[in-house]
Amino acid sequence: MLYFASREMNCIAALICLMVLTAAGCGGENSSNTPELLIPVTGTVLLDGEPLGGTAVKFLPYGETKGKGGFAITDAAGKFNAQDYSMAEGIEPGVYNVTFSKIAQPDGSPIPEGQSAADVGALEILPTHLTSINPDNMKYMLTVESEPISIDYELSSKR
Q1: Is 81 exposed, middle or buried (0-12, 13-18, 19+ CB in 10 A)?
Q2: Mind listing the pLDDT tens digit for each residue in 114-131?
Q3: Which of 3, 64, 123, 130 is 20 to 30 A (C-alpha) from 29?
């Protein structure tokens, strides 16, 4: 046992040991919110043949799929890389219903930097058959297994 000359130093040493032991017991094997297995999912979103930039792509767990799903935002070329909600790249294996959302000003122009959607009266500009889950239309389903996926969504503004 290690002893210090003063009682204060012994108390400080004991406190440091207690803090180290307490910190070592926190967490567990995977203390972050990141799932253990994430599969890369990349792709492109087109609307009526044109790249659909600035669009949210949501992967919503379907049926027996566990986890929270994932999301992506398309770039100007309509390309995306999916992330899970811990912000790690990829999504967990499972079956997902995929929805799309693009918010813009009433005239269709993007929301100016530094302003919120509410500030400019922004609206959803995509038709509801693309933005909502419809059990009668399971066209946009994605099954993620163990291999990386690259998928292109060719959406139509017409039902």
Answers
A1: middle
A2: 999 999 999 999 999 999
A3: 64
